[in-house]
Amino acid sequence: MTSNGGYGWMLVVLCASLAENAALAHLLRAGMPSMGLVACVPDQRESTCLLALQSGIDAWFTPDASEQLVVATMFSLLRRMGGVDPLVLPGADSSGWQLVDHAWKLQLPSGEQVTLTTLERAFMLALTSCEGRSATHEQLTSTMGLHDVAAGAEIGRERISVMVSRLRRKVKALGAELPVRSLHGKGYLFNGPMP
Fold it and tell me: Is there a contact between 84 and 75 (Cβ–Cβ < 8 Å)?
């Protein structure tokens, strides 16, 4: 890997209080501007996100975030830093469905690609990284940042349902069927072949 100031790729995860994380991030950013900073924040309110950004924190997660989301957040930051891309494995078979271009595109087995929106990307990453490639509504709404919707979990489920319908139409326009199945009120399953 390319060197980053002689130290290699540096990524720091801050897990103290918001005020302590912000203060430490400010000091680290001043001393090593190219360091990647990920922090635990208490919530996703705008004031919290603003403090994180203004302190120099690159990415964050809440205490109730799954281990998968925390790891995906760190890998996302590493990719932006020019480090690694865990979604592109050397020598991977190109047959089947794939997430390419840092998971911003869904590649069909035919090789054609569908550009994903932010929500579609989060949905596909969550679904394909879960065991058995299936996830509950609760897992999906949390991972996709829809669990804070003021009107409750039902609105989050409806947004996912609408998003899945739109994604199916995009794939159908290319002459294929999206291999995502609804699990009768429980969640969703991706049952297509992936390398």
Answer: yes
